[in-house]
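Lab meeting prep.
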Amino acid sequence: LIDGQPSRLIGRVSMDMLTVDLSELPAAGLGSRVELWGKTLLASDVAAHAGTIPYQLFCNLRRVPLLYSEG
């Protein structure tokens, strides 16, 4: 999700980066909030779509600062 709006990936994951299509989100750009998974987009759904399990997604995060919150 980009600023709470769904977007689609373009191409393949390259190293630890990915490219998203912002053509339907003209207000999005540098500084936009990006959610890979969370309350709206469940990790289990993302994992199922990728043909894996949530644990594998979490273990593959490397350089991303993690923000923990009670919720």
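Slide two material, second protein:
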Amino acid sequence: MLQENMLIWRDKQQQEWLRIGRQEGKLEGKQQGAASILTQLLRRRFGDVPEHVIERVAGAELPLLEAWTARILDAATLDEVFIS
């Protein structure tokens, strides 16, 4: 009985770890996709993009990437995209 309970608990833990891993993977994929799109849009709108900007975009979290992407249409300069 105890051994069965331990096996059930272990299986539930493994399922939970898999679920968490999938969630993290999805979020990371969304972040990478948003960063890629933003970088493409920045290049299309402003031409050459400095490496430090590309690195900043690559390291940003999804909500910030979404805010920056929304600003591209109204920004007259690259710096205006990143104004807080």
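Talking points for slide two:
The longest helix spans residues 2-46.
Helices lie at 2-46, 51-59, 62-71, 78-81.
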